[in-house]
Write the structure tokens for this entry.
Amino acid sequence: MRITRFPVDVARELLDAGYYRIDQLAGRSPDSLLAEIAQRNKGKLPAHFLPSLRMAVYYAETSSPDPKKLFLDQWE
């Protein structure tokens, strides 16, 4: 994962789920990614996971991401 300011714990969970490249997130629903990660962890995830996944999917689907949208507070 090469997204600026992306939380390391979320990146690790994506890697553990088998997402090794950013382009693999294109077209995915952030909610379904969150559900997939939550199912593997069998517990409640921190609140920053969903905004992080929204940002990751945006980044994957946008050829020139807006630098202002690469902050988690833009996705809450």
The mean pLDDT is 92. The first helix runs from residue 8 to 16. The radius of gyration is 11 Å. The chain is about 45% helix and 0% strand.
